[in-house]
Amino acid sequence: MDPRTDKTYYNDEGEMGKYVLNKLTLPAHQADPQVVEKYERYGKRILWMDSNAIPGAMQLNASWYYKPNMYLIDEAKEEGTSFLQAHKHDVGEIVAFYGSDPEHPEELNGEIIFYIGGEKHVFTKSTMVWLPAGLEHGPLFIQKVDKPIFHFSCVMQNTYEFK
């Protein structure tokens, strides 16, 4: 193929554009206005992919974290919600956190507290976590943010489901 003469498509145009996602469309359980409002106090969703957005796709979502979310501990207790409860999936999941300083990409420039199998882990470096099927994880707390933290998670199934 010659890139100087090939027809060019932008974003989601063309026949293969059906495989391109560039608009945030949240599933119903994440699109609830109260859930969105609570999430956007500390983070901003970028994109959410699943089989509802692109048939056959596995679930992946990406966000920026820009503020701590430790206040949610007290709010969850007051509301009696399960927002911060540990959960597990029937399939594996990858969870990642990356610092946004291009001069020091290994540095998280913040502090994330993440429970894995009941153990408390504190991340201060850019980190990826593999969670095998059935491994309980969460809650996730953003303790400190000096520079925005990029986060993504990918559940190895077509939609985000947990127990």
What does the model show?
The protein is mainly beta and 163 residues long. The chain has three helices and eight strands. It has helices spanning 28-31, 33-39, 72-79; strands spanning 43-49, 59-65, 93-99, 107-116, 119-125, 127-131, 137-145, 149-155. It has a five-stranded antiparallel β-sheet, with no helix packed on it. The chain has a three-stranded antiparallel β-sheet with strand order 5-4-7, with no helix packed on it.
Keywords:
three-stranded antiparallel β-sheet, 163 residues, 8 strands, mainly beta, five-stranded antiparallel β-sheet
The overall strand count is: 8
Radius of gyration from the alpha-carbon trace, in angstroms: 18 Å
Within the largest sheet, what's the order of strands? 1-2-8-3-6
The main β sheet shows up as: 5 strands, antiparallel
Euclidean distance between termini CA atoms:
48 Å
Q: Please report the number of helical segments.
A: 3
Mean pLDDT rating: 92
Q: Regions with pLDDT < 50 over 5+ consecutive residues? A: none
Give the strand content: 35-45%
Mass-distribution shape: globular
Helix content: 10-25%
Structural class by helix and strand composition: mainly beta
> What series of H and E elements makes up the topology?
HHEEHEEEEEE
